[in-house]
Amino acid sequence: MSFSPWTFPSLNLISITVMNADHVTVDIAGRSVLDLDLSRGRMVGACFRFSLTPDELRSVVADLRSAGSGLERWIVPALEFTHSTRGFKKSNPKSHAIVPKLLKACRDLPIAEQWKRVRERVIANETAEDTGTTSRKPGPQSAPVRKPPSTRRKAT
Fold this sequence. Notes:
Blueprint: E1 14-20, E2 23-28, E3 31-39, E4 42-48, H1 54-67, H2 75-84, H3 86-91, H4 93-105, H5 113-131
Antiparallel strand pairs: 1-2, 2-3, 3-4
Helix pairs in contact: 1-4, 2-4, 2-5
């Protein structure tokens, strides 16, 4: 994804603001709608703003789909991460409820390779915590340590 005034010539309502070395904000029509997290200059995560109404979220996804320039690769990651965040579910249950439908509608979009690696670690663990299961296979380190029964008899 490139940062240039010419990045979105057909959608001049989209602007990108570099907040600092680790944070980029995407604005549509002057309103912040998407946060992108960077690590060493590479994007590693994305999250939609929790305050978006269901209609606004649908509209934002539609605008970002048509933006191109690599931004569309971060729609699915942003939807997945936002949906998995407990704060979003609590603060905006109506928007939270439409995310699975948006994800289904966006299944044809490419997904950033960086997110695929993060998804394996983060989302899988978040889901496991919510369901009370573990995504790790039990191993010797997870088994309880018990002392073997004593073979010595007490002196009487």
